Amino acid sequence: MRIALAVFGTRGDVEPVLAIGRELVRRGHDVRAAVPPDLVELAEAAGLVAVAYGPDSQLMLSKDAGANLFGESTHRFWQINKIAQIFRDSWEDARKIRRELSKALVLLAEGADLLFHGQLFEDLADNVAEYFGIPMVTLHHIPLRPNNVFPWFLPAPWGRPAMATFWWVTSRVAGNAEKRERQQLGLPKDSRAATRRITERGSLEIQAYDEMCYPGLAAEWASSAEQRPFVGTLTLEQSADTDEDVAAWIAAGTPPICFNFGSMALKSPADTIAVISRACTQLGERALVCAGSSGFRTGSQDSENIKLVDKMNHSAIFPACRAVVHHGGAGTMAAVLRAGVSQLVLWSAPERFANGIVVTRLKVGRSRRFSGDLTDAILINEVRQILAPYYRSRAREVAALMKAPADGVRAAADHIEAFANLHTVD
Fold first, then answer.
1. 212-236 burial by CB neighbour count: b if 16+ within 10 A, else e?
2. Phi-psi category of 121—alpha, beta or left, where left has phi over 0 and alpha has psi -120 to 50?
3. Which of 12, 31, 163, 224 is most buried by its number of CB atoms within 10 A?
4. Helix axes of 11-26 and 330-339: crossing angle, nearest 10 degrees
């Protein structure tokens, strides 16, 4: 089977799709991949032939307009003009990216038997799949389709219609861009919200998170179980060059508090590391800081009590830590859950806010908005709370219930093969 695999976003968006792609290659399928230019090397390391897809993920981080919009609208909602400007910038960036992705995806999908795409810009991918008359698979990190569980702030009967309304409004806002794309591809007009159209066309919607994160969702979607299989959070579980060094540093002292900022773009890395250093000194804790894409200068402040690294294997390092403070990425959150340690989510974007809610509902840690006012006192208080015996005990209980990523990857590949063999698209 010839599969066109494309995913746009940061490493947290890309890695789960690559993990499945690697398994499909292992099973003998011809997989052609497209990922952001700065993640092509990651795809190739996973054994895939890859081409560039859109701009660098780092460009997204430097702009981070969506996160800024969410942060400003919740924190300084009275600054209407500033919020409006952020929205305009974000929308213009999205339109430019869509044009670039659309051209690349048409080239990638030509001659393919199936199109496999990540959740960002899945509407664009659906148009391309319809154009070529091939089935589409999409992978979700959070429950995107209307349901009563995800909108935790609404009574159960209102959640589903609220989400359906949200996607309808979103489709109206994005309507002109999508209409142009469908017109350019010679596709008929379609007034349905893209999320509804994708489902009604019979696409496979892999849910790449554990059912336990959203209690009751699997039961609500029971009639769609074959179309929306839950496979758990997926990862390549690749080792990093720093793993041995980090493990040796951890073994030389008490288990540290790990600070993992992943794809979060920090306004002042130096100020943040200073707050971490002072807070951990007062707490009498060691700090392991994984820079990711945050902008920390690694190696500059290594000592007995603090260590900075560019990257590390989460599955190997997190279990050796006392707790993890992180940005709320879906992959990082799940890795901490599997490690059985408590966690603090410092979120700055809508999806990460939602993941923070999962952490608090599971009672394995705490969550708060990350902002410039993160003081020593605030961080000290939050870390003290997640180190409480209750959170640590609860984290171990939840870890025992998590799915293994390798099992999830195999299950996802099984679903894709069965879908390609048996499913037809109207």
1. bbbeebbebbeeeeebbbbbbbbbb
2. left
3. 31
4. 70
Q: How far apart are CA 38 and CA 218, in angstroms?
A: 36
Residue 256 amino acid letter = P
Question: Do 2-64+95-233+404-422 and 243-399 share a fold?
Answer: yes
Residue 68, C-beta contacts closer than 8 angstroms, at least 6 positions apart: 86, 90
2-64+95-233+404-422 CATH, one of 3.40.50.2000, 3.40.190.10, 3.30.470.10, 3.40.50.300: 3.40.50.2000
Whether the pLDDT of residue 75 is over 50: the answer is no
- Domain range list for the chain: 2-64+95-233+404-422, 243-399
- For 127-153, the pLDDT digits (tens) are 999 999 999 999 999 999 999 999 988
- Contacts with 231 (C-beta within 8 Å, 6 or more apart), sequence order: 206, 207, 208, 403, 408, 409, 411, 412, 415
Distances (CA, A) of 261 to 41, 67, 183: 21, 14, 41
- Residue 342 pairs in a beta bridge with 323
C-beta atoms surrounding 351 within 10 Å: 19
* Confidence at 170, pLDDT banded by 50, 70, 90: confident
Q: Please give the Cα distance from 166 to 168 (Å, whole number).
A: 5
User: Would you say 142 and 207 are in contact if contact means Cβ atoms under 8 Å apart?
Assistant: no
CATH superfamily to which 243-399 belongs = Glycogen Phosphorylase B; (3.40.50.2000)
pTM given for the model: 0.89
By the 10 Å C-beta count (0-12 exposed, 13-18 middle, 19+ buried), 85 is classed as middle
Residue 205 CA to residue 412 CA, distance in Å, equals: 10
Shortest CA distance to 145 belongs to which of 221, 93, 90? 221
Q: For the chain, what is the total number of helices (H) and then of strands (E)?
A: 18, 12
- Report the sign of the C-alpha dihedral through residues 406, 407, 408, 410, in that order: positive
Kindly provide the residue ranges of all beta strands, DSSP E only, lying in 287-385, ordered along the sequence.
Answer: 287-290, 306-309, 323-326, 342-347, 365-369
Instruction: Please write the tens of the pLDDT for every residue from 359-396.
Output: 999 999 999 998 766 889 999 999 999 999 999 999 99
pLDDT of residue 304 exceeding 80: no
